[in-house]
Amino acid sequence: MTKQNSLTQGSIFKTLFRLALPIMGTSFVQMAYNMTDMIWVGRLGSRAVAAVGTAGFFFWLAMAFILIPKIGAEVGVAQSVGRQDMKEAKVYIKHSIQMIVFLALLYGAILIIFRKPLIGFFNLGEKDIINDAIIYLVIISFGMVFFCINPVFSGIFNGYGESRTPFIINSIGLIVNMILDPLLIFGIGPFPRMEVAGAALATVLGQVAVTLIFIIAAIRKTELFSGLFLFTTPDTDHVKKITKLGLPVALQSGLFTGFAMITARIIARWGPIPIAVEKVGSQIESISWMTSGGFQTAMSAFVGQNFGAKKWSRVFKGYFIGMAIISVIGLIATGLLIFAGRPIFSIFVAEEEAIRYGVTYLKILGFSQLFMCIEAVTAGAFNGLGRTIPPSVVGISLNALRIPIALILSATALGLNGVWWAISISSILKGIFLTAWYIIMLRRNPETKDLKIFSFTANRRTAINTR
Question: Cα–Cα 20 to 30 A to 86, which of 113, 306, 309, 377?
Answer without folding.
Answer: 377
